[in-house]
Design goal:
This protein is of the alpha+beta class and about 350 residues long. The chain folds into four domains: about 20-95, Arc Repressor Mutant, subunit A (Orthogonal Bundle); about 110-160, no CATH class; about 175-250, SH3 type barrels (Roll), CATH 2.30.30; about 275-355. The chain has eleven helices and 13 strands.
Length: about 350
């Protein structure tokens, strides 16, 4: 570091190193502590100077709880490494920019594609409303966009009506239960809760070592080892009755891999079978299916009249049964025979239910 004395309009030469504590500006423009990160302190100094508040080393040192020597090093860093036109006004006793500085140095101007990606991220955050993720995600987004210049920020605001996410029938999440489950996964602690199977009224106690939490079709599922049944099971959080209680610690098996576990499922429910599923779709359904990845094992063949045939390998049939039926007469099960029989049985039952007198 330079040993030169401090000049009236210049600070000490700065080491090739960014110092520590930090602040950012609150809504009122005053500096507030945010953590020990020098880059954020430099951003706050830049914002104060840009706002023509003429901060000086004494005031900045008090607000940031650092020494005046540290502030002088900060200012010199900004002059030397970012080529900022920082000058000192003797009459106003503070720093100012001798020319316009449109944005914080070191933050590159983002491209149009990156701006759109930010917008997508902002809209996607709303899908997590009602979960403990929502507030941290909002705060992270505000932190990211806080470093945009005015032009970029206005561009982002003007694009608000360009796109939206419209989740169908989003699940109302019990936040307290959700937090207990996530804490159990992070701390490797067992969970005890009452659980109701689909279509049943009564509940039964479960003792589970939780491994993974996943969201599918706007519903949250817990994947873990059911201790009493000595098997890995999937539990819908919405079917947990009441709260969940943390228990003993456990060791997660090193060979457990959620991608491998779910490989044979269409969405989140794995089975113990091994089925080659073949479904044919008419031209209308083929247009809806085209270009979408429904399963990692899918193989789609286009047929002469605009129809298509899809093959995939699954470990269970419950999820694909519901999926096929959702296509109505636009889908036909070719194999396995068991799936075709189940779809036909449901179709006959529906026909009887809606049969005209």
């Amino acid at each position: 570091m330079s040993k030169n004395p401090v000049q009236p309009r210049r600070g000490n030469a700065l080491e090739n190193k960014i110092p520590t504590p930090a602040v950012s500006l609150g809504n009122g423009g005053e500096a507030v502590r945010v953590g020990r990160n020098a880059t954020e302190r430099l951003l706050a100094i830049h914002q104060l100077i840009s706002a023509k508040r003429y901060p000086n080393t004494a005031r900045l040192a008090r607000e940031f709880d650092v020494s005046q020597k540290t502030i002088k090093r900060d200012v010199e860093w900004m002059r030397v490494h970012w080529n900022l036109p920082i000058e000192y006004d003797r009459e106003r006793h503070g720093f100012f920019y001798s020319r316009e500085v449109p944005q914080f140095p070191g933050v590159p101007t983002i491209t149009e594609a990156e701006m759109f990606a930010l917008l997508v991220a902002h809209k996607a955050v709303e899908q997590y409303s009602g979960t403990p993720f929502h507030k941290p995600l909002q705060m992270a987004f505000r932190k990211l966009t806080g470093q945009l210049d005015d032009k970029e920020r206005y561009s982002l605001q003007d694009s608000e009506d360009v796109l939206s996410f419209r989740p169908f029938a989003p699940e109302a999440t019990d936040v307290e239960r959700f937090e207990v489950v996530t804490r159990a996964i992070q701390q490797r602690r067992a969970l005890r809760f009452l659980y109701r199977k689909p279509g049943e009224k009564s509940t039964s106690g479960r003792h589970v070592h939780p491994y993974h939490l996943t969201c599918n079709d706007n519903r949250w599922y817990l994947i873990g080892h059911d201790v009493d049944r000595s098997d890995i099971r999937t539990f819908a959080l919405a079917r947990m009755n009441g709260g969940a209680v943390l228990g003993e610690t456990f060791q997660k098996p090193k060979d457990f891999n959620v991608e491998k576990y779910l490989r044979g499922s269409l969405t989140v429910m794995s089975g113990r079978g091994d089925y080659e599923v073949v479904i044919e779709f008419d031209a209308w359904a083929t247009d809806q299916l085209r270009g979408r990845l429904w399963h990692s094992s899918q193989q789609v063949t286009e047929l002469p009249k605009g129809e298509s045939r899809m093959r995939m390998r699954l470990s269970g049939l419950e999820e694909v049964e519901r999926w096929v039926l959702s296509w109505g007469t636009h889908a036909t099960v070719i194999q396995p025979e068991l799936l075709a029989e189940r779809a036909g049985s449901i179709a006959r039952a529906l026909a009887g239910r809606y049969e005209m007198p």
